[in-house]
Known about the structure:
Shape: elongated
Strand order of the largest sheet: 10-11-16-15-14-17
Number of domains: 2
Oligomer: single chain
Largest sheet: 6 strands, antiparallel, barrel
Number of strands: 18
Strand content: 15-25%
CATH superfamily of the largest domain: L-fucose Isomerase, Chain A, domain 2
Amino acid sequence: MEHHLKIGMAPTRRNVFSKESALEHKRLIEKKLTSWDVDFVGLDWLNKEGLLYDQKDSQRVAEKFRNEKIDALFLPHVNFGTEAAVGKLAKELGLPVLLWGPRDDSPLQDGSRTRDTQCGLFATSKLLRRFNVPFTYIVNTKIDDKVFERGFKNFLAAVSVVKAFRKMRIGVISTRPGDFWTVIHNEGELLERFGIELVPTTLVDVVDWAEKLTESKEVKEEMELLSQRVDYSGIEKKDLEKVLALKRAMKKWASEEELSALAIQCWNALQRAFGVMPCFAHSLLSDEGIPVACETDVHGAISMHLAQAATMFQRPSFLADLTIRHPEDDNTELLWHCGPFPLSLAKSRPKIGRHFILESHSPGVSEWEIEGGDISILRFDGDNSQYKIFASHTRAVSGPFNKGTYVWVKFKNWPRIEEKLIYGPYIHHVAGVHGKIAPVILEASKYMSGVEFDDGEPEAEELRQWLRCEIDEL
């Protein structure tokens, strides 16, 4: 799927202030975005200045930006700006909006001022509110200040999440396991409220596709490559080939249907029909940017897709059970699942074995601890027509050995996190991803109408302090 972002940049000024100063700041902003490799479309085609100051031009600019297929709108105020022009543009496009302007210079010797940018930002923000247009604001700072860079790059990652949320298609393979009431979802509500489309198929179809691929050249080649990376001595070669055929079948279906993520009934019917666990297939697909949620957890699949989008698709996500607390540390929790965590995250030589819980003990389960560092957990979920998105930072620590795929993570105050998750609307599944994505999710949630941001660690105000550069670490 296409993950590239394009920004529509509509710098604005007001006639009563210095045109020369406005043009100079426009050039400086464009130079800064170029240095960050931001793909943006400006207004040099609109008039000699390349600035928006006449509300009569708002519709033309909207049409141009639509044709360019921009993903978000940046409204730098290079002086006071014209709130009606940019406000109407933002209302027309309905995209994420970034509002900011460079800090004003000192008054001239005669007492006059060249830009009054901050004052204009107050005016535009009020109009955006009247138009019910959600927006992101970066505190009025100089172009080279860290606040602008941090805020702009966080906004880009938030746009990545919003784009993923608004264009989501989740492949659903079979119904939920009968005993798992926790993963019940409302398909009609997901479509009607958020535009999230579920694309169903059956296990019969997937197994049929996989059986036709078991002896394929592609599976043989992938088997050869993986034999150098994983230890599968605990299972039969033919079983691993079946897992890889299953992976190929799901990937082909995802490509044909342009799916964002998958949710599959991974037990027990699949084992009776095909004789393997799909866990290692999940691992490989998640590494290739197609997250797969276990136990037909549709909300989990949504969470996984949003988690990787928050990293600008630079890191794979994984679905984990919140399983047990560390036997010696009250603030450390086990993130675990049978075996679907991405192979690229394996800390030591990975193994493929048999399921140690299910009675079938079917082959195809990954076994490794994943790499450490900063990890974020995320969960999109809802019940009774109320939806939230929970995000928290944590950090990997050492802990007891586990079967399956796992990592122990430490929180500052796990009982607070546990209590939040228990009161819901969450379950025991969370999406995990390496990095610190909570500020991104905080900002993205503004554009996810009907979804409330729910803070873990750090709390929301601390995230805002970080965005304002009042603190350097989260």
